[in-house]
Design brief:
The protein has about 210 residues and is mainly α. About 55% of the residues lie in helices and about 0% in strands. Helix 2 packs antiparallel against helix 8 and helix 5 packs across helix 6.
C-alpha cells in the first residue's frame, strides 16, 4: 500500500468519524487509567456499568486505596479477571500515592511501571488523556491493519511500529480511535461490513464481501 492510499484511507475515516474518541466513560486521567485497566478482555459497555457505580464512591488513588481490595472487587466483580485487576488497581493506587503525588504520570516508562499497565494501556493514556501521538494496537486495530494491508504485521508491536511510521502526520492524534471505531462497527471480525465501508475501494482485503 502506498503513501497516497494510506492518506486517503485516513481522510475518509476522519470524515466518517468526525469525533473519534474512547467509548469508556471518564472525567479525569485517573478515571481513564482505571477504566482502561479494567477493559482488558472486557467490553467498554461492561466497564462503564461498573465504573458508573465505582467512581461516585471512589475516583482518586487515595479513595480507592482506602476502600481496600475486597470492597473494590465488589464494584468490579462483573468484569472478567476482576480478582487480578482489583489487586493490581490497589497496588497501582499505592504507587501513584507514593511516587507520583497521586497524579497519573505522563511518560511511557512511568506508566508501564505501574501494576497492571502494559504498553497498550500506556499508549491509550498518553493518547487519550494527554494528547500524545501514540497508537495502542488492540484486537480491532491489529485486525484492520492486517486485513486492509494498511500496516500488516505478525504481532502488535510490529503493527504499532508500522503505523507510527506510516500514518500521515495530520491524523496521528486521532488514528488510534479512528481505527478502533472502524474495526468495532464496520471492519468487524467475522463478517466485515464491506458493503457499507467508506474505504472499501482502497482496502486491499482479498476476501471482501460486497453486496
Amino acid at each position: 500500500m502506498n503513501k497516497e492510499k494510506r492518506h486517503a484511507i485516513f481522510a475518509r475515516l476522519a470524515e466518517a468519524i468526525p469525533e473519534p474518541t474512547t467509548e469508556l466513560n471518564y472525567v479525569t486521567p485517573f478515571e481513564l487509567l482505571i477504566a482502561v485497566v479494567l477493559s482488558a478482555q472486557a467490553t467498554d459497555k461492561g466497564v462503564n456499568k461498573a465504573t458508573a457505580k465505582l467512581f461516585p464512591v471512589a475516583n482518586t488513588p487515595k479513595a480507592i486505596w482506602d476502600m481496600g481490595e475486597e470492597n473494590l472487587k465488589e464494584y468490579i466483580k462483573t468484569i472478567g479477571l476482576y480478582n487480578t485487576k482489583g489487586r493490581n488497581i490497589i497496588k497501582l493506587c499505592r504507587q501513584l500515592l507514593d511516587l507520583h503525588n497521586a497524579q497519573v504520570p505522563e511518560t511511557r516508562e512511568e506508566l508501564e511501571a505501574l501494576p497492571g499497565v502494559g504498553r497498550k494501556t500506556a499508549n491509550v493514556i498518553l493518547n487519550t488523556a494527554f494528547g500524545q501521538d501514540t497508537i495502542a494496537v488492540d484486537t480491532h486495530i491489529f485486525r484492520v491493519s492486517n486485513r486492509t494491508r494498511l500496516a500488516p504485521g505478525k504481532n502488535v508491536v510490529e503493527v504499532e511500529q508500522k503505523l507510527e511510521k506510516w500514518v500521515p502526520k495530520e491524523y496521528k492524534q486521532d488514528a488510534h480511535h479512528l481505527l478502533i471505531l472502524h474495526g468495532r462497527y464496520t471492519c468487524i471480525a467475522r463478517k466485515p461490513r464491506c458493503h457499507s465501508c467508506v474505504i472499501e475501494d482502497l482496502c486491499e482485503y482479498k476476501s471482501k464481501i460486497v453486496e
